[in-house]
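I am still learning, so would you mind making up any protein sequence you like and the tokens describing how it folds?
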Amino acid sequence: MKNEKKYQGLRRFNLIMGFLHLVQGVFMILVSNDTTYPIYTNFLNFNIETFSLAPVAEMFYELPFGPAVAVFLLLSAVAHLSLATFGYGWYVEKLELGMNPARFYEYALSSSLMIVLIGMLVGLWDLGVLILIIGLNATMNLFGVMMELHNQTTKKTDWTAFIYGCIAGIIPWIVIVVYFLGAIGSGEQKPPEFVYAIIPTIFVFFNIFAVNMVLQYKKVGPWKDYLFGERMYIVLSLFAKTALAWQIWLGTLAPI
């Protein structure tokens, strides 16, 4: 196989990255405090005194943040280790076509959990809103699968899936920024300082993923080789997840 050496290097790279995600995930489980964030439902209730309908907030679940942070790291660990072991043959087969759907399926799970945690840090605690954020972010990543699949059959790059994915992906961030700005202007009690760092940091990382895809399809410089773009996705995933995990841990999960 023409690129066998590169594929073997990518296999080792996935093993290393899987191990790094795994170590961090285990750390988050073992060395985090018991901080939780609430998730509420707001179902309508008829008030017999005012004869009107009004939403009533009820606790649905207290989400333990340490294990939640660990999950998005462990999801990446499972994906990387799977592609480097029993899934390696399938992985190479897809890379030969200029595709890696496993990447986007993993992102649909892990990055959706990441953005939910960011939302909860700024006060997005309604179950319905969180479900919608998960759905939109997962849809953004599934459009990534469609982008690579659709362009298997086109002579010229079709950006339709990419554009729709960007539209789906920006909506959760708009909601997060609205709530963040609302929290800043609501009174003397401001969001913790680490939240101020998380939002721009992870927003930039999320957008660099899109830039990486553009460079791949535009075949700019080293991105002419699809495997270079694949490595960049892997590095970006590690950096984004590591940045979010440690900012949350240092900000709210570190044992006192």
The longest strand covers residues 52-64. The chain has one domain: 4-253. DSSP finds eight helices and two strands in the chain. Residues 226-253 form the longest helix (28 residues).
